[in-house]
Amino acid sequence: MPVRTIVTAEAPVLRQKAKRIKQFSQSLQALIDDMFETLHAANGVGLAAPQVGVSLRAVVIEIPADDETGTPAQSYVLCNPEIVKSSGEDTDDEGCLSLPGYVGEVTRAAVVTVKGFSPEGKPVRVKGEGLLARALQHELDHLDGVLFIDRLESLEKLRRVGEAEEEAPGS
Fold it and tell me: Which 8-state DSSP code applies to residue 154?
């Protein structure tokens, strides 16, 4: 399971609509495994296949453990995901592994339900709130060629991490 190179904002693959997954195969599972390795190496929360240069509709997300509540880390894999329900509004800082060193305040839905498939092709449904809801929306944006900077009020709102009070989780 090699760590793959995360492409940065100027890579054309990040601005294209990713292709639907048609074959749920061992090569897809290998990609997913590599994406988790890459995510861990980068200390990120989420990663979409286009971020490693692969134009496929696949995302991995890992929400860190919460020591205060005793909640273990939660991992998610979604192939061909789509948001089927959203509600509320939440504004918070976001970062992106493809735009290292920058954060910006983005407004997203507070709660989302996403449906998709596992790497084996089985239907999956995930309901997310808080960080999970934000990560789901951020990663699904990558599949449509949208970066978090496209959702900023203005590019003037983009800040270097040193200017932020603390680094927002990258995805």
Answer: -
